[in-house]
Amino acid sequence: MNQHERIEKPVTGRRAETPMPVAAATVTDRVWDALLAARRSGQPKRSDSWTPAERAGWDLYAPLLGQGDRPLVFAQIGQSLDGRVATVDGDAADVSGPEGLKHLHRCRALADCVIVGANTAIQDNPRLTVRLVKGDNPARVVIDPRGRLADDAAVMAGERCLVVQACERERPAGVETLKVAMSAEGLDAVSIIAGLIDRGFRRIMIEGGGITIGHFMDADLIDRLHIGIAPLIIGAGPSGLTTSPVSLLAQARRPQTFVYGLASDIVIDCDLRA
Fold first, then answer.
1. Is residue 254 classed exposed, middle or buried when 0-12, 13-18 and 19+ CB atoms within 10 A define those classes?
2. 45 C-beta neighbours (distance < 10 Å), count
3. Which superfamily does 21-235+253-271 belong to?
């Protein structure tokens, strides 16, 4: 059951004809309230009375609402100017600026569930809440093939939590499990998405890390990708998005992109289905 099999593969090897301008985006209370209302009703509507920056704020997030009952898979990653998500010592706490962090929480608030890999869950111990913005916390999904995640991890407490695994490990009471077969490439990404859809999730967000996002990208399962860039240079450390390499630039993905300037960060919105 893979809804994405009906969608054509992304076009590769074509250069954009013109550079994409940066749109200054502001998410005021009235814009965010409209987005949350659209999330509940399924009827997105942008107001003509908004300022250009407010309209840009709407345009950044409205695609994450999806279309009707069709499932949507989107990913978000924050990184430095030189493409790093942490220092060599693992410090990733302040890669994104204040607006970059709010952007992450807005993406969570528009999602039904948020996926992270076991490494991210263990190293960062995230709560995956929307505490910086108004909205409901999403369900948490951890990909933990070998059962490494501790039972007292922050993602296990509070909202609905589901662990994707290949082992038979028992989880704490109330934590759901999804067993998926494992190969040399890891857990089957198609089976993961299909299993989440079967459990009622329609807006599925993949938050990290970069290898986990790349795994779903290599399987052509991501519809939309947000890359947040903060104005700092780290110099070394883990890279952001990590996908299978190409040998020729003509083989590279060239998604349709839209660039938005938030107060402290830039977000590049990539439409991988255009």
1. middle
2. 10
3. Dihydrofolate Reductase, subunit A (3.40.430.10)
pLDDT in tens, 203-229: 999 998 899 999 999 999 999 999 999
| pLDDT reading at 12 higher than 60 | no
Contact assessment for residue 99 and residue 261, using Cβ atoms and an 8 Å cutoff: no
- Each residue of 40-78: pLDDT tens digit? 998 888 999 999 999 999 999 999 999 888 999 999 999
pTM given for the model: 0.90
Contact indicator for 221, 189 with CB cutoff of 8 Å: yes
